[in-house]
Amino acid sequence: MTPNDIPAVEPAPVTVAVTGAAGQISYSLLFRLAAGEVYGPHSRVNLRLLEIPAATDAARGVAMELEDSAFPLLGEVTVTADAETAFDGVDAAFLIGAKPRGKGAQRSDLLADNGAIFGPQGRALAAGAKEGLRVLVVGNPANTNAAIAAAAGSLQPHQITAMTRLDHNRALAQVAAKTGVPVGGLRRMTVWGNHSSTQFPDITELVDADGRGLAEALGGADGRWSTEEFIPKVADRGAEIISVRGSSSAASAASAAVDHMRDWVFGTPVDDWVSVALPSDGSYGVPEGLVCSFPCRSVDGRWQIVQGLELSPAQRSRLDASVAEIAEEWDTVRRLGLV
Ligand code: NAX
């Protein structure tokens, strides 16, 4: 089924919570949700906008603009600073609001600050949401924030994900620019690991729309272009956007969040996959429970990790290094007693 298929009966409205609703990513995402870009042109969408008390007025302003856009699919819009109210009965939650790293703060401070956000949100989600709940964590450090929410709320592994789709899309864009193959004709990109500078964007399995492999033409997955230009370019793209634009990626992050949730609901093409950070089931030697990015297909509304891909020794060490970073973050969370 695709978002445009006409359903036999009108689907029930979808209720979606968005945290950090007054922030810059939400300012793009909320309008795309209301326009039907995630759930298709036949589903009504109710929105729950969660903000900290100091920003609920700003979120109310966004709600007014949503109203003024007269989206035919938009149902109720609720603005609240209370997580239980925001998450009660939701089908999906985009957890975007997070605490940024302050000047001079340690990584452990960042984890502690975010543990204080994502722990309670995980519990509130578990208390109020439906069994078919889909959670996408965008707020950084996204992988570990997702692990905190999952552990605190005892969420099922199939309910929680973190976003590496922006990294995936950035990787597609770089390859398209290099090869001249349009992004729509590229299949089987993978971003492995953490949503951080240790991530491993991998062109090994990349094919064009006719199924022709592209890695060789790019000098090989372990070749100079891939390792010295492509991987660092994708991994550092967020910093590059900040230096050029003057603020961090917002519309592209919202666009990736739309892609992620739409594919989760409607599925991925059989000849393709996308990158999703989710709790490991032990695949590719990644310790169970660590939230790591893998190549994934969405089948019958659930993500499945693509199995059986081969990693060269150099690729294995890249993945291991990124997984070690995720494990270290998780150790800190445990040591600080955040879950
Ligand atoms: P903004 O600073 O524009 O907005 C964040 C909003 O979250 C603020 O309005 C703030 O009041 C709110 N907030 C803070 N704590 C909250 C809480 N406990 N409950 C509800 N709302 C809360 O940031 P924005 O540019 O929108 O980015 C949001 C997050 O996305 C950041 O953590 C950022 O690092 C992360 N990103 C993640 C990406 C990814 O690919 N996973 C890419 C884009 C982005 O960098």
Give a written overview of the molecule.
- The two termini are 38 Å apart.
- The protein is built from ten helices and 13 strands.
- The chain has two domains: 149 residues, NAD(P)-binding Rossmann-like Domain (Rossmann fold, 3-Layer(aba) Sandwich), CATH 3.40.50.720; 164 residues, L-2-Hydroxyisocaproate Dehydrogenase, Chain A, domain 2 (Alpha-Beta Complex).
- Helix 5 crosses helix 10.
- The protein has 339 residues and is of the alpha/beta class.
- Strands 3-2-1-4-5-6 form a six-stranded parallel β-sheet, sandwiched between helices. Strands 11-12-13 form a three-stranded antiparallel β-sheet.
- It binds ligand NAX.
- The site of ligand NAX has 27 residues, from helix 1.
| Ligands bound, unique | ligand NAX
Find the structural class using helix and strand composition: alpha/beta
Number of domains: 2
CATH superfamily of the largest domain: Lactate dehydrogenase/glycoside hydrolase, family 4, C-terminal
CATH class of the largest domain: Alpha Beta
Question: Which architecture of the largest domain does the CATH hierarchy give at level 2?
Answer: Alpha-Beta Complex
What is the averaged pLDDT score? 96
| Strand ordering within the main sheet | 3-2-1-4-5-6
Tally of DSSP β-strands: 13
In terms of DSSP E residues, the strand content is 15-25%
Radius of gyration: 19 Å
